[in-house]
Design goal:
Length: about 375
């Protein structure tokens, strides 16, 4: 049989595709990576505008407790010391996130953990919640009704476009609740952002691998099908099958970016707007991701992005999978179809797996697939 030109065609040059390509290359596999966008890097791609690194597709803060993943990414880039401390604003007042003693002090004027705990306990009792069945009940059990109504309800309903009572409890469990004065948004052991942004990480992963931008698999299917023994597909699985079984749902985002002729707009990388009246969920001021880069911080301009959640309509970007029952079953059906019809294609990454992966999980998943495919060991 005639040998095909590549061992792997990797569709999508995001973090998953780039990590898999790196590992495959290390094992002597011949790979080609394609992406429909004009650049590599998927949603971690950064622009550099007048000395400021801009997270073009939303803020990406790398955090992990996985030592193997942390060592791996540190081979390619130097991470800065950034730690995410988010501020929330509600009706002109500021609160610290995630929920911690600063937040409880700002909310109730309490100074001791036991006082905060007692208020939450009382509000939980008043709400008579035994086993939380939805996000609203889960949130009230964790932090009480005041915090729920001030910092969670409006934000979450804007973000997901449906009432908290109709959302799964797990979403809110992503955020820590602490009875200490610790404003770190994450509980992980390691955290930071590559100095200069993520492009250097993607560049390191894809060095020496053939890459094609502006190349949409769906539009070039017939030419691409025969070039590799196997395909790693990181795009939406329903689109691959031309929506034969129905459409998977996503929540999308619209970014409104502004370059302002002032040095400092909000003094923090992320400020959340938790009230339902403000149409956006947060404002990102990109220079603050580079806290220790004096040139960026002192630049006489600043770039901010307002983030507006929106429905996923044709042409919008699929950001957050909506893992409710219908979509979970539909995704499983697509995987079964894939196994039957295209056994040489692995559907992977956030879109292929239809899961909201943090970046470290994406890399760990790529490592697992590389290990399964050809015994890769980091
Ligand atoms: N959340 C909230 N208020 C906030 C920030 C987050 O209620 O000010 C809730 C909201 O339901 C959101 C979830 O916490 O969907 C997870 O937030 P996270 O910051 O992890 O979301 P991401 O930045 O990953 O989209």
């Amino acid at each position: 049989m005639e040998q095909r030109k590549y061992d792997y065609l990797i569709v999508g040059a995001g973090l998953f595709g780039a990590t898999f390509a790196y590992m495959a290359k290390q094992q002597g596999k011949r790979c080609i990576v394609i992406d429909k966008r004009p650049h590599l890097g998927g949603n971690v791609y950064c622009d550099n505008l007048g000395g400021i690194t801009v997270h073009k597709y939303g803020p990406h803060i790398f955090h992990t407790s996985n030592k193997e993943v942390w060592n791996f990414v540190n081979k390619f880039v130097v991470f800065n010391q950034f730690t995410l401390n988010t501020i929330a604003t509600y009706k002109e007042k500021l609160y610290n996130l995630p929920f911690n003693m600063h937040t409880f002090h700002q909310m109730w004027d309490v100074t001791k953990p036991e006082e905060a705990f007692a208020i939450i306990e009382q509000q939980r009792r008043e709400a008579t919640i035994e086993n939380p069945r939805n996000l609203e009940e889960q949130a009230i059990s964790l932090v009480g009704r005041d915090v729920y109504e001030t910092l969670i309800k409006g934000y979450t309903e804007k973000q997901w476009g449906r009432p908290c009572r109709e959302l799964p409890a797990d979403i809110i469990k992503r955020l820590p609740v602490r009875f200490s004065f610790n404003n770190n948004y994450f509980n992980d052991r390691f955290q930071g952002i590559p100095e200069g942004g993520y492009n250097a990480l993607i560049g390191g992963l894809l060095e020496g691998t053939e890459c094609l931008t502006y190349c949409n698999y769906i539009d070039n299917r017939s030419e691409l099908e025969g070039i590799a023994d196997e395909i790693i597909y990181t795009g939406p699985i329903d689109e691959f099958f031309d929506y034969r079984l129905g459409r998977l749902e996503y929540r999308s985002l619209r970014f409104e970016q502004e370059d302002l002729p002032i040095c400092n707009f909000q003094g923090n990388a992320i400020v959340n707007y938790t009230s339902a009246e403000v149409p956006y969920t947060r404002i990102v001021e990109h220079k603050w991701f580079d806290t220790y880069n004096a040139a960026a911080i002192n630049a006489p301009h600043t770039i901010i992005t307002r983030e507006y959640p929106q429905d996923f309509t044709p042409g919008a970007e699929p950001y957050y999978p909506i893992n409710d029952e219908r979509n979970t079953v539909l995704h499983k059906d697509y995987l079964a179809l894939a196994k039957k019809e295209v056994p040489d294609i692995a559907f992977a990454g956030r879109l292929g797996a239809y899961k909201y992966f943090d970046m470290d999980k994406t890399i760990a998943e790529a490592m697992t697939l590389a290990n399964r495919e050809y015994g890769y060991k980091a």
